[in-house]
Amino acid sequence: MLCYKYHAMHDNTPQLLAMFSPCIPLATLIFFSCILHFAQQASTSSFIGQGYRLISIQIAPDAAIHALLQVKQTNNIYGADIPLLRFYAKHETENRLRVHITDAKNKRWEVPYDLLPREQPPPIKQSIEFLKKKNSTWVSEYSGSELVLTYTPDPFSFAVTRKSNGDTLFNSTYDDSHPFGPLVFKDQYLEISTKLSKDASLYGLGEHTQPHGIKLNPNDPYTLFTTDISAFNVNADLYGSHPVYMDLRNEGGKAYAHGVLLLNSNGMDVFYTGTSLTYKVIGGVLDFYFFAGPSPLNVVDQYTSLIGRPAPMPYWAFGFHQCKFGYQNVSVIEEVVENYQKAKIPLDVIWNDDDHMDGAKDFTLHPVNYPRSKLLKFLDKIHNIGMKYVVIIDPGIAVNESYEVYQRGMANDVFIKHDGEPFTGQVWPGAVYFPDFLNPKTVSWWGDEIRRFHELVPVDGLWIDMNEASNFCTGKCRIHEGRICPNETQPWICCFDCRDITNTKWDNPPYKINASGVHAPLGSKTIATSAVHYNGVLEYDAHSLYGLSESIATHKALLDIQKKRPFILSRSTYVGSGKYVAHWTGDISSRWEDLRYSIITMLNFGIYGIPMVGADICGFFITFTDHEELCNRWIQLGAFYPFSRDHADFNSPRQELYLWDSVAESARNALGMRYKLLPYLYTLNYEAHVSGAPIARPLFFSFPSYVECYSLSTQFLLGKSLMISPVLEQGKAQVNALFPPGTWYSLFDLTYTIVSKEGTYVTLDAPLNVVNVHLYQNVILPMQQGGMVTKEARTTPFNLIVTFPAGANDGEATGNLFLDDDELQEMKLGSGYPIATYIDFHATVREETVKVWSQVVEGEFALEKGWIIDKISVLGLNGGGELHTIMIDGEPSTYVSNVKVYTTEHKYLHDEGDGRNNIEMVEFESLNIPLGKNFSLSWKMTY
């Protein structure tokens, strides 16, 4: 058992050192560590500093504020105070305010502007000269279109309010009513706090596994520092760092949301008490961005407008993916594909973990298990039916003089250094060096290695893992002569001779963040934080950017090589990663808790601007033998993750979906529906790319005024109107699902209806092969007829499902559809070529007349593909009827006589209505309407 032993450091900060000995279990120690940590912070925060006073302020010609802040009283707690700060604020857009605080005399580390492009504040020298030339202008407020900045001079603090309702969104003013002190700014310790409304519901500040749900829980620890620890560890810093939160408030029945980003890549603890939030950061600057909202969708739109819109994904990426660490040879993956086909379970992508490599070395093939000739023959076979192949790449490059990738890396000087030599770590191949992706030469070298490998094996996508960066050792290491390393049976156990690096302030900073949930040293199981990147950048500052920088380099390489839209999956992420990669939730267990937690993490990443996300279906570490029921329920949920993949650990038993008859049946049902929904999912992919809108989202995105949704973490929406209510508990055959106000229709049987007048919980039957999915009123959902691969599903006719409120005499519904050539690098309209189609759909019911029509914005691509609308189902009507007319581009259709009309009475599963009559679904089949042309059809209801 890996345990930890308490050790008190000289500064009274609890420190927990890894020991391999009988001691306290890790989970217990994390719990007590958190209590100690919070007690220590509560007892000392008021003594850390006395704050700063404003000594000069001016508004520049570009309407930005420049100010100087002088420290009131110095001390040496966590280091010396920086005596003079430059305060800079600017309304960068109508809905975005920036506040930037840094040292007024010395340049400090910031997230590189070439890594995350954004507007740069003016040089500090320019601010100082500007302030010297003019007398201070003591403005009372700094107002934009919706956000207003005010400040208090002594001790200096600032507040951000919403102009439309006067609500305070952020307020760093210190007073006795809140348990935080004034601004602190030292070289390795920055502290700032804000008061919060008692009505505030907060979301974000990840990546963590949150056992209490998606809504942040007061007094849970929120530490940000990218770390390779398994995601079944709750409330610990995991693979990504996203120092952004959304604040949702309900005031008198009306909801308002705003967002706050602290753009800082250094390690930090964020303390949330319920009425305040305190940042304790160990370096960099305070670079805040405030996003006005006021809806949750507005916040994500404004956030991704700054950090980069989510990457467009190829169509096949929305199919089902299968992987396992331990597919020993080509014959095994051939067998897996064949078994999926025999079981008639859809499958689009087969993956390899390290198994295809020669000695776990990147960009190689195992000469016996994965000979190139046999692998290429297999790829030809799957490519011919539209399937794809993705392989893993870890950043650590094996230290091996005969390994050409290593040779070229050394020749180009691409590795991170320590004491002037490449820093040595241990990962799967043994001794490794870590590429420095902040170095332009590394980006070129990395791209060339991917090109060489792609010429060897035409992979369709890449999976970049272990990029926190992960290291099986800690400290300064060397290989012991004569020792076999790694040990074949336990390659994840460090087998080097290592010594701790604690003699620098970068490896042993004065303030200890709650790393790994146990106050682990910063360099534990990663690159030493005193290691050096290109241009002298310290790992201490850039650590959490490693995954982002590798993602950018990999994305550039695939764009250059494939000349088409890349697919990249990354474990480690940072602000802006969604512009380049998808994400999965890492190494989780096959436990019912992890099934539940996966929804929370998925929804958080939609807020972070990384909408293509999912968890390892059935779990990565299989921890018990009775796995069948859990795998049933997991594929029912996982079929509706944006990224849907089954994956398991090397030492876990096989868990492909065809291995159990019951799981295979659940997979055919759930994945069968997913493949029918592909046009809808792909349209959500387009909306994410142009506006940042999450594909999977919490219910409060569509129902922000319904407070019951604010903490709901067991259901979610795909888009604005498709609700998934999975079974998440063992032995259950029912699910108690929340239905916000309105009419909901079962997607698997459109006749089943739930009418919720004011919002209610409804108990739904959910036998082992059933997942409950419901479609909301007032929408038009485009679907196709499914298939075994996305290539096949894409050729089938379209169906439209139109939903009205039950029995409405006056209502309307809308929907949209985007389709394109998914190999194009960009996802856009208006190119002048038939490469994309975009359509708005509309429907109305006015007294007795029903009308459904389309407005084609661009249709040539759909016409070229020959797509047709075969069926339209209209739900919630007071009566049936005969089709009156079909118009196509203004001309009557010649197919009216072939159209079949069916009327079916809806069945109420739950009705809070006002004694309404029976309602009906009317379906029109054999329509044969060209998708790329404007159409309309109408009829009068009969009773």
UniProtKB/TrEMBL annotation:
Biological processes annotated in GO: carbohydrate metabolic process
Keywords: Glycoprotein, Glycosidase, Hydrolase, Membrane, Signal, Transmembrane, Transmembrane helix
CDD domains reported in the protein's UniProt record: GH31_MGAM_SI_GAA, GH31_N
Annotated transmembrane regions: 16-39
InterPro entries in UniProt: Gal_mutarotase_sf_dom (IPR011013), GH (IPR017853), Glyco_hydro_31_AS (IPR030458), Glyco_hydro_31_C (IPR048395), Glyco_hydro_31_N_dom (IPR025887), Glyco_hydro_31_TIM (IPR000322), Glyco_hydro_b (IPR013780)
GO molecular function list: carbohydrate binding; hydrolase activity, hydrolyzing O-glycosyl compounds
Domain annotation Glycoside hydrolase family 31 N-terminal: ranges: 95-267
Residues annotated as domain Glycoside hydrolase family 31 TIM barrel: 310-684
Domain (Glycosyl hydrolase family 31 C-terminal): residue spans on this chain: 692-781
Superkingdom, taxonomy of origin: Eukaryota
Family the entry assigns: Belongs to the glycosyl hydrolase 31 family.
Database matches in PANTHER family: ALPHA-GLUCOSIDASE (PTHR22762), ALPHA-XYLOSIDASE 1-RELATED (PTHR22762:SF127)
Protein name: Alpha-xylosidase 1-like
Native organism: Arachis duranensis
